[in-house]
């Protein structure tokens, strides 16, 4: 057993009433395993203890509440956030939370932001990359980002299938659709000017940003289009370098070669994707980071120090 020091910013929970509302089939069809994973607070704590994880920030994963009508979505999200907040309060500091929002229903989402911060408590907000046919850069969501900017929120963005899903037989959404949906969400936020207009938000993107590090130079060519001049006035690469990225399913030489060419190591955070990625993946991620040959101070920053700075905490 390793002495706990890591901070995990990508750690999902499946409270019983959320699992019942959404359904195991809807969750499982997105995953390589084909089934919803087993989860309980006790299982999470045991995995954290075995792999040196001191604290995990919990979030809802895809499919969120995408199959729910507005009233049901609000009810399910409130229940999920209440369960996460109760776990946060009772865990002695082992769990933080990213409260979920009932998007695309903007007035309800604004109400839940206020409730999460002012009533039940949260460390940040969790979003999906897309909702129906709308990516996060859609102007519909501007009031949500304005509210989050006022609170200097930490916003964790997790992928969903998205409207551009490929549906190749034998290839679950988590394999291809998730990283590409993350890429499209980042580009949509940049091209809508969301990053520029709401600089108080600290965004974390899952899985090393999908394909964004690989495509960064290609994306920078968007600056050559005259009509993009105003929205890209900061520059594509400087915009991308302000974002945070987690290591979930990406702690390998292929992903890190591109990621650390794009951003400073201070923008990289440890993420396990547990339990949607099983315990052996957590172990592999930790081993993968250790095998990259990083300076020990950089490795310590990725596994712990950067999160302490981002969440403005000391323990």
List keywords for this structure.
single chain; 315 residues; alpha/beta; TIM Barrel; two-stranded antiparallel ribbon; 10 strands; 14% strand
What is the CATH level 1 assignment? Alpha Beta
Mean pLDDT: 94
Strand fraction band?
5-15%
What's the arrangement of strands in the largest beta sheet? 1-2-3-4-7-8-9-10
The rounded distance between the terminal residues' Cα atoms is 20 Å
> Which structural class fits the helix and strand makeup?
alpha/beta
Could you give the count of β-strands? 10
Descriptive overview:
The strands form two sheets. The chain has an eight-stranded parallel sheet. The chain has a two-stranded antiparallel ribbon with strand order 5-6. The two termini are 20 Å apart. It has a single domain (6-310), classed as TIM Barrel. Helix 4 (70-90) runs parallel beside helix 5 and helix 5 packs parallel to helix 6. With 315 residues, it is of the alpha/beta class. The chain is built from 13 helices and ten strands. It has helices at 16-22, 24-28, 41-50, 70-90, 106-120, 142-150, 177-191, 194-197, 212-220, 236-241, 253-262, 279-290, 296-310, and strands at 6-12, 53-59, 95-100, 124-128, 130-131, 134-135, 154-158, 202-205, 244-246, 268-269. The radius of gyration is 18 Å and the shape is globular.
